[in-house]
Amino acid sequence: MGHPVHLIIDGQPHDLTVDPRTTLLDALRDHLGNMSPKKGCDHGQCGACTVLVDGRRLNSCLLLAVSLDGAEVLTSDGLAPDGEPSVLHTAFLEQDAFQCGYCTPGQICSATGVLREAADGHPSVVTEDHGHDHPIELTEDEIRERMSGNLCRCGAYVNIVAAVRQAAGASTASEGTAR
Amino acid sequence: MRPFDYVRADDPAGAVAAMAERPDAAYLAGGTNLVDHLKLGITAPDLLVDLGRLDLADIEELPDGGLRVGAMVRNSDLAADPRVRRDHPMLSRALLSGASGQLRNAATTGGNLLQRTRCVYFQDPTTPCNKRAPGSGCSALGGYTRYHAILGASDACIATHPSDMAVALAALDATVVVLGDDGEKRLPLTALHRLPGDEPERDTVLEHGDLITAVELPPPDGAARTRSTYRKIRDRASYAFALVSVAAVLELDPDAARPTILSARIALGGVAHAPWRARRAEQLLAGAPATRESFRRAAAAELERARPVAGNEFKVTMAQGAMGSVLAELAGLGEENEDSPDE
Asked: Fewer CB in a 10 Å sphere around the end CB: N or C, chain B?
C-alpha cells in the first residue's frame, strides 16, 4: 500500500509514494538514485548510511521513509553543492582519510554532525568538563568517541581522526573571521 | 519484512485508541530497535502507530524541582540538557555511554526503556528462544553467555536488559508515566521491567497499548553532600553494550566526625533481565562508615545471590569490583584498584 511522502533531498523537493516498509536509505538509493549514502550492514551498526535529517546525523537504514514526511535530508553529495567540497570533504582528501571510500559519505555526514554538536556544547562520555555548556574542543579522544558509530573496514581511522581535527580547526577559524 | 499498515498518531489518546483495535499493532518511536527487528523477522506487527508527531518532546520543570522528560525526547537531547547535566550528571553519562551518536539522535526516552535484549539467540530467528518464541527453549544456556544475566535469571531465560539510561533512572528513583485505555498510571521505574520467571516473553509489566508518555526525575538532592556517577565496563572503549555497569548516588554526612554514609542508591546494568537495584547493598551502607571495607562488604553481599552460568562467572567478580570501586570513588577514596584479577 503506497503512502505519499514529501522529502527535500539535498535541497531538491521530491514527492514519493512508498510502501511503509521502505527505509530512508532504500528510498534514497532505489527510488531516487542517490547513491551517496551506502548500505553497509543495514542494521544501524556500521554508519555507512549516515545522513543529516533536519540537521541531525542519523542512520538512514533504521528510518522508515513514511515517517519523515516534510523532512530535509542532506547526504554527503548535498554537502558539496555544485561539486564544491565542504571543509570536511577537503580535509578527508588532504589527510588521505579513506582507502576504498565506501564508508566515506557516512563518515562525512557523521563528522558534519559532530562539528555541530561540539559547537553547540553537547558533551560526550569522554568530555571532562561535563556540566558546562560551552563549545567543546574536538581532541583526538573526543573525535574517536563521537565517531565510533562509523566503521571503516580499511582501517583508515588514524587519518579520519586527523581529517575531522583539521576540519574542526578550520571551522572554528572561519567562524572567528566570517562572523 | 512482512507488510504492515501505518498510521501517524496526532495525540497520545489517539495512539492508545489506534492500538486498542489491533492486537498485533506496535508503536513506532525512534525505530532504532524496532526497524531492525522488522528486518530480522523478530517481530511482525500488522500496524505501526507512529508516535513521531506527538507533543511529547519537551523537558519541563516540575513544581517540586524535578524534571518531566517527555517520552519522545531523544537520548542525545536529554544527555545535553543543561539541567540534566547539572542535577543528574549520572543520567547524562549513562545516556552518552550507550550506542553511537547517530543512534542517540534517533532513540527516544520511552523507546530506550522498551528496547529489547541484545541476546544473540533472541536476535537470531533460526534458534530456539523462549523470549521470542515461548516454549521453544533457551539457546543461551550452554551457549555464548558473556552478555547474559548473573542475577534474577530463570531456567527459561538468562537475557539482560541492554539499556544504560534505565540503569541510571533506576538509581535516581525515576517515575514512569503511562497512558492506557483505562487512563493514566504512574509507576516507579524499578517496577517497570520484570524478571523473566516463566514468562520471559514479557519484558515489562505494561499491557498491549500502554503508552509511556513521560519519565519524571525527582528534584536533585543537596548537591553539596550527594555525588553520583555511572561507570560502564565493556569489550570496546565505545559503542558496545555493557558487560557490567554501575549507577550510584552516594550521600555522605558532612557533620559526622568520620566520613559516614547517610544513604546510597545503586543500580547495576548488564547483569539481569531488568536494571538491578542493589537494595541489599544499600541497606548495609546506610549509616556505615565511608570506607573501602564498607563498600567491599556491601558489594559482596549484593552479589551473594549471583547465579552465573558457564561462561559468565567472571561477571560476578567484575560487578562486585565495579560497585566497590565506584562507591569508593564517590566517597573521595580515589581510584585505587585493589581487586585485580590475580589478587
From this structure: C
Which one-letter DSSP state was computed for residue A27? I
Sequence-distant (6+) residues with CB within 8 A of B256 are none
* Fold assignment, B226-330: Enolase-like; domain 1 (3.30.390)
Question: Which chain B residues are Cβ-neighbours of A40 within 8 angstroms?
Answer: none
Rg for chain B, CA atoms, rounded: 20
Yes or no, beta carbons of A64 and B8 under 8 Å apart: no
By CB neighbour count within 10 A (0-12 exposed, 13-18 middle, 19+ buried), where does A102 fall? middle
pLDDT tens digits, B300-337? 999 999 999 999 999 999 999 999 999 999 999 975 55
The predicted structure's pLDDT at residue B254: 79
Chain B residues with at least one Cβ partner in A under 8 Å = 1, 3-6, 8, 28, 31-32, 35-36, 38-40, 48, 50, 52, 76, 79-80, 82, 85-86, 89, 92-93, 96-97, 99-103, 105-106, 236-239
Cell match 560476578: residue?
Answer: B316
Distance from CA of A139 to the nearest CA of B (A): 16
- Number of Cβ pairs < 8 A linking chain A and chain B: 111
Choose among A169, A170, A53: nearest CA to B102: A53
State the Rg of chain A over Cα.
Answer: 16
CATH 3.30.43.10 in chain B is located at 5-50
Residue A169 CA to residue A157 CA, distance in Å, equals: 18
User: What is the per-residue pLDDT for B225?
Assistant: 79
SS (H, E, C) B85-141: HHHCHHHHHHHHHCCCHHHHHHCEHHHHHHCCCCCCCCCCCCCCECCCCCCCCECCC
Q: How far apart are CA B8 and CA A160, in angstroms?
A: 39
Q: How far is A40 from chain B (nearest CA, A)?
A: 14
ipTM: 0.95
Q: Residue A43: closest CA among chain B residues belongs to which residue?
A: B36
Architecture of domain B5-50: 2-Layer Sandwich (3.30)
Give the HSE-up count for residue A30: Cα atoms under 13 Å, Cβ half-sphere.
12
